[in-house]
Amino acid sequence: MDIDAFIAVHQPQWDRLDQLAKRGRLSAAETDEMLVLYQRASTHLSMIQAAEPDSPVAAQLSARIGRARTHLTGAGENPLTASANFFVQTLPAAFYRLRWLTLIVAAAFIVISVAAGYWAYHHPQLDLIMPEQARQAYAEEDFVNYYSEHPSSSFASQVWTNNAWIAAQCVAFGVTGIWPAAILGINAGSIGIAGGVMHEQGAAADFWLNLLPHGLMEMTAIFVAGAAGLRIFWAWVAPGQRRRLTALTEEARSLITVALGLVVVLLISGIVEGFVTPAPWPDWVRIGIGAAVLGGYWAYALTLGRRAAEAGVTGDLGSYDAGSHELTA
User: Which among 185, 190, 107, 108 is positioned nearest to 143, based on CA atoms?
Assistant: First the structure.
């Protein structure tokens, strides 16, 4: 794209937008005009940043758009409106972008878990690793009692905090590539070995009936967190046509959105683990609740997320909130 020609064509519109933004009061017609110019200028800014991210014109235009946005929205966006936009557009769009990578992470996790479980079940010297008496106590008492030995509310809070911390680490340290992979691998191995021991002791039903109600959503949330972390890592490794720092910054901003959203998702799975998993209800009810929660997540991510993605939402902050590049000498 010829930046100079692009500027020459659209400069009058930007000047008019700035002129309207500096006025104290606008008529209804002028407000409509300003809104149209604001939308056009936002599109122009995206095109300029795609062609020349560090262009001083982009910084100047971003400032003009910022003034116009402040004029249109007053002191700031209504908190209720901002919250609605976050949960209806920004968050589902971020989840939607990760859908395929989430499934890939899930598949790798399952493979590692099955391999670890098979190893534990068939290991010829398992007694040297975990004595028979300890395995029997784990299968008959410890595993099931883990979900009911503490009050439901405190247990739900504990698992929520623990899982949210794991998810946050996957995202925050995702740039390393190693950290999320290590966390996922360790957790996959732990679950696999636990399952192998439970099967070896003839307690397979107890394992699955106490894992599935909350585990369906809980583990999916961890998969999403791992996918988010690995996506940040990949933005650093293969930034495409963007500068490496620009790609890393954009992906990190949008995927921090994922970390915030997962706090809510893990709160829901924590409530299920604290109140549904140990409940004396029929197995199909407990597993059905867990499956419904998981189905709700995917419906949210795929339906609202696809709609938001088609509208151009990526989960990143807008140009005004995120700021723009500034050249320094």
Answer: 190
